[in-house]
């Protein structure tokens, strides 16, 4: 029972903490080095194509990933594809790529928030696999009020880890964040 309670609290905390990450972190903490320039030891690009998907952010499949110095490690990172979809039933789907290195301290999640005009809504959440490899994330939610329309928007995505504090309550830690312009189709 206690495990279920902690898991439920963690999910609720993850949902509530995602907007904090987009506001510069909880308690003034930074969202992490992913926002401070080149990421994944590669250049930040606008509009590269990855497996047919236009995305904003680092070129995750670029040779720059293999140009790391011997013994160096990749960093936790997150990107958002340059598009999302809005279905006839108001289902919104957003996606991108992530890499995380270690989830031994607690589960890691990819959360996303869609902003269009003065509307903002959390769009799902995905539990991350932290093995140092690149993975695709896809978050989906039905958002009827406010309804989103095809056109330009912004996605704020966060790679967040939940760790237990001294009392055993889950506490969010922000590993990486991305704020990207997208086109909703």
Structural class: mainly beta
The string of secondary-structure elements, in order, is: HEEEEEEEEEE
What's the number of helices? Answer: 1
Shape: globular
Proportion of beta-strand residues: over 45%
The radius of gyration computed from the alpha-carbon positions, rounded to a whole number of angstroms, is: 16 Å
The tally of beta strands, per DSSP, is 10
Task: Please report the distance between the alpha carbons of the first and last residues.
Answer: 43 Å
The stretches of 5 or more residues where confidence is low (pLDDT under 50) are 1-70
Q: Report the helical percentage.
A: 10-25%
Average pLDDT over all residues? 73
Biggest sheet overview: 10 strands, mixed
Give the topology:
Layout: H1 2-22, E1 44-50, E2 53-58, E3 77-81, E4 83-86, E5 91-99, E6 108-116, E7 119-127, E8 135-142, E9 151-164, E10 170-184
Parallel strand pairs: 4-10
Antiparallel strand pairs: 1-2, 2-3, 3-5, 4-5, 5-8, 6-7, 6-9, 9-10
């Amino acid at each position: 029972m206690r495990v279920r309670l902690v898991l439920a609290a963690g999910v609720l905390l993850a949902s509530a903490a995602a907007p904090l990450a987009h506001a510069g972190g909880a308690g003034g903490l930074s969202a992490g080095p992913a926002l401070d320039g080149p990421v994944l030891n590669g250049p930040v690009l606008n509009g590269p194509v990855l497996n047919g998907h236009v995305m904003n952010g680092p070129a995750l499949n670029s040779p720059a990933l293999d140009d790391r110095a011997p013994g160096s490690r990749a960093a936790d990172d997150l990107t958002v594809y340059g598009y999302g979809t809005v279905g006839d039933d108001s289902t919104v789907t957003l996606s991108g790529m992530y890499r995380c290195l270690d989830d031994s301290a607690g589960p890691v999640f990819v959360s996303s928030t869609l902003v269009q005009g003065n509307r903002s809504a959390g769009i799902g959440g995905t539990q991350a696999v932290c093995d140092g490899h690149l993975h695709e994330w896809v978050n989906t939610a039905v958002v009827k009020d406010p309804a989103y329309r095809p056109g330009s928007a912004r996605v704020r995505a966060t790679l967040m880890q939940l760790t237990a504090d001294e009392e055993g309550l889950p506490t969010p830690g922000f590993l990486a964040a991305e704020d990207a312009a997208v086109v909703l189709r």
